[in-house]
Amino acid sequence: MSRHAPTASGDPEQPSSRAAERPSGRAADRRRPLGTAYDCCDNVVVDNHELSLPSPTPAIVPAAPTPVATGAYASHGASHPGENPFGDKPRRPAPAGGIRKRIGSALAAIGALIAKFGLAIKALLVALPNLKLFVTAGTALVSVAAYSIFFGWWFAAGFVALLFVHEMGHVIALRREGIKASAPMFIPFMGAAIFAKSLGDNALAEARVGLAGPILGSLGAAAVAVVGELTGSSLLIALAYFGFFINLFNLLPVVPLDGGRAAAAMSPWMWFAGLGVLVALVFLDPGNPILLIIVLFAAFQTWHRWQQRKSHSLQQAAYYRVAPRHRLIVSAVYVGLIVALVFGMSETHILTSGGHSFGSI
User: pTM, whole model, 2 decimals?
Assistant: First the structure.
């Protein structure tokens, strides 16, 4: 029987016990102490668990909030929050100072736009009187072009000039009444018109405004007739005839013609007589659309004015109250104009002028 050498602790060495307790595989490598794995080294101190260093306490790092992926990043799924999967660096939010600069620039641009708009409005207000002139000149040119189709350029220009003189008589009378009137506006084949808030405070003022147009228009036609007689110009004589005729037609006693304005001071019943004359003219010339338009407009105006007068209000009674002396003066001027215009037409009537026939007039 053999003997074994004693160990450091005094116990007999058991050579077969380590082989029996040694685990196999990777578990043995993990749990094998350093002294056992490396027999050539003295690792007793390292293998002593009582002398091992304490494990460091892990630092607590607050978890960053996971950003919500939007747009292209949401579809591809970024590996890190806020990181572009295509390799681009994530955009940093603009600083607060940059946002304030952008807002300030936008406000400055809006202020500049408002200033430019204000200057444009101011320029328009300054040019408003010239705008009236442009309207008058523009519509006059259109009328000249329309009349030239039938009568030629020279006659058309002269005819529009006589219409302008007629309308300026109304404008002057309105200003004498203290009423602001618009510039004349020409309507091809319908003549011309002016616009005002009212024609006066009473029927007498309305009659003065209405008769002022034919008076000044008749004087203009007479001046053209005199020049035509002195120069022997058949064109000017024919033009004077048309001027007399237009002013005479406007003296028909029906609103809105000038004769209807005078009839308001003489006798409003005359409106129905003038409307009857217009209807008769339509039957005599049924193919004239201009006459038909005038009749329809006159019928509406007559009905409207008569309904107002039938209200028997104090305002209407005061408006149509005209002194007998003033009524007589208006009647004398009205009849005198008719006589003078008929005489002027008889003296200037010619059958032809410049190749144009006026035999039907």
Answer: 0.61
